[in-house]
Design a protein that fits this description.
GO terms for molecular function: oxidoreductase activity. By secondary structure, the protein is an alpha/beta fold. The chain has helices spanning about 35-45, 80-95, 120-130, 130-145, 160-165, 170-190, 205-210, 215-225, 235-245, and strands at about 25-30, 50-55, 70-75, 100-105, 150-155, 195-200, 255-260. The radius of gyration is 17 Å and the shape is globular.
Length: about 260
C-alpha cells in the first residue's frame, strides 16, 4: 500500500516472468529485504528455485509463522559485524551453503544542502550503504568460494552517483563508494570464480522512495527516459535474477542500470 497522499502511476510493460528452476539448488542471501526492492528481489529469486534468506532489522512483509515458499527471515543489522557472522553461518547451515549474496540494505536520503551535511551524516550513510556490504561479503566469502554454482555478489547501488543528485551528498557518496568497491571485489574475488556487479534502479515507487519524493518528481524522472514507462521493482528484480543465473557467470565488475534509458550510461 502506498503512503497517504501518493498516487504514482505505475503503468509499464510487465516484467518478464520468472524462469522456473533456473536457480534450483542454490541458496541466496538478500539484505534489506523486508520490503521494497529487496522484497521483489527475494520473491524473484525464490520463484526461480533459490532458497532465500531475507535479512533485515525490520520484520518481513508476511505475518504469522508461515513464510512464503522458499523464503525464510533472519534479523540482521548490517552495521553489526558479529551479528552478521552469526546469521550468515546460520543461513549456510540451514541451506548447505550460500551461492548468491544481494546487498540491498541501505539508507535512503531526503534532501539537504552539502553545506549542512556533517561528517557524522557521512559516516552514518557509509556505515550501512558501504561498510555493511563489505561486512556481508567478508562473512559470505568462504561459502561463495565453495559454491558449485559459482558465487555471485550483487550490490544495489544508485545512479545518483553519475547524476550528482543535489541535496544528497552523503547518500551519493556512499553509493559511489559501493560502485568502486564492487570493481575491487570483482578483481580480487575473480580467482575464486565469484562475480561482483553493481545494479542501479530508476526512481522506483517503493515506500522508501515515496517518503522522500513527490508525484511530480517521479513524473519528471520518467519524462527523461528513452522508454517513458515507470520501472517497477519486478523489472529490477529480473536484472538481479539474470546476474545470479548461469547466464551471468562471466559478467563481473559491471555497473548495470535498469531505468528505461534515463541515464544512458
Amino acid at each position: 500500500m502506498e503512503p497517504a497522499g501518493h498516487a504514482v502511476t505505475t503503468a509499464a510493460a510487465p516484467a518478464a516472468p520468472a524462469v522456473p528452476g533456473r536457480l534450483a539448488g542454490t541458496a541466496a542471501v538478500v539484505t534489506g529485504a523486508a520490503g521494497g526492492l529487496g522484497r521483489a528481489i527475494a520473491e524473484r529469486l525464490a520463484a526461480e528455485g533459490s532458497a532465500v534468506a531475507v535479512l533485515d532489522i525490520k520484520a518481513p512483509w508476511w505475518s504469522g509463522p508461515d513464510s512464503p515458499e522458499g523464503i525464510g527471515a533472519w534479523h540482521c543489522d548490517v552495521t553489526n559485524t558479529e551479528e552478521i557472522r552469526d546469521v550468515v553461518d546460520q543461513v549456510a547451515q540451514a541451506h548447505g551453503g550460500i551461492d548468491i549474496l544481494v546487498n540491498a540494505a541501505g539508507l535512503l536520503s531526503g534532501r539537504a544542502s552539502l553545506l549542512e551535511t556533517t561528517p557524522e551524516d557521512l559516516q552514518r550513510y557509509f556505515s550501512v550503504n558501504a561498510a555493511g556490504a563489505l561486512s556481508m561479503v567478508q562473512a559470505c566469502h568462504p561459502y561463495l568460494k565453495a559454491s558449485r554454482h559459482r558465487g555471485r555478489i550483487i550490490n544495489v547501488a544508485s545512479r545518483t552517483f553519475f547524476t550528482g543528485s543535489p541535496g544528497q551528498l552523503a547518500y551519493v557518496a556512499s553509493k559511489g563508494a559501493l560502485i568502486g568497491m564492487t570493481r575491487v571485489m570483482a578483481r580480487e574475488l575473480g580467482p575464486d570464480r565469484i562475480t561482483a556487479n553493481a545494479v542501479m534502479p530508476a526512481q522506483v515507487a517503493t515506500p522508501g522512495t515515496l517518503a522522500h519524493s513527490s508525484d511530480d518528481a517521479f513524473a519528471a524522472t520518467m519524462a527523461q527516459q528513452a522508454i517513458q514507462e515507470f520501472v517497477t521493482p519486478e523489472h529490477f528484480a529480473g536484472l538481479v535474477a539474470y546476474l545470479a543465473s548461469p547466464d551471468g557467470a562471466l559478467v563481473t565488475g559491471q555497473s548495470l542500470v535498469c531505468d528505461g534509458g534515463g541515464l544512458l550510461h
